[in-house]
Design goal:
38% of the residues lie in helices and 11% in strands. It is an alpha/beta fold. The longest helix has 16 residues. It starts with 6 loop residues before the first helix and ends in an 8-residue tail after the last helix.
Length: 212
Amino acid sequence: MDVRIEESWKRVLAREFEKPYFVGLTDFVRNAYRTGTVYPPPGKIFAAFDRTPFDRVKVVILGQDPYHEPGQAQGLCFYVPPEVKDPPSLVNIAKELGHRPDLLSWTDQGVLLLNATLTVEAHRAGSHQGKGWEVFTDAVIRALAEEREHLVFILWGSYAQKKGAFIDRRRHCVIESAHPSPLSAYRGFFGSQPFDKANAYLQSHNQSPIAW
C-alpha cells in the first residue's frame, strides 16, 4: 500500500502498511472523512512523522487522541496553531516550563509528537480508538526502541505508560509522571521536570539538548 508519509518512516514501516489491520484501518478512515467531520485535516494525519524523520528522532512525547474541536488538531500531540486558544494540557505544559513553548521548533530538533490514535471524529473524544491506530503506533514505538539507541520517551499518564511498557530502560531513558491534564497535573506532573531530565540524558550521551 502506498502511504503518503516521510520517506524514512515509509521505509521503516513498510511491512506494517501491508498488514490486514492497516488495510482495514485505511478503509475505515477514508470512509470517516467522506461521511463526516474528522480531525486533523487529511493531509496532516502523518504530520508528526513528516516533521521528524526516523533517523532524527531524539525524544518521543506520547499523547492519546487528537484534539476534536475545530482548528485544533494538526497531527502533532499537544500542539495547536498560534491563533487557537491553548487547551488546558498545553497551558499546564507551559506552566511547568515557565513559558509558552513553540512545539513546532521541538519537532525540528528531533521531538516526535506522537498521538496513539491519529484521527478523531469532531466533538467525540476517543471515537477512533480501537480501529487499528493503536496497533500502528505500537509498531512505531517498537521500531524506535529496537532500531535506535539512547532515545528519551516522555510518558505522561497511565495510558502512555502502559503503551510504552515494553521499552528497554537499559537502552533508552523513560520519563514518567502524571498527565498535564487539569485532572491530574497537581498529582505529579508539576515539578516533575521532564524537560530538564530529557536534556540531562541527551547530553550524557553526547547529544545536543532540546531548546524547550
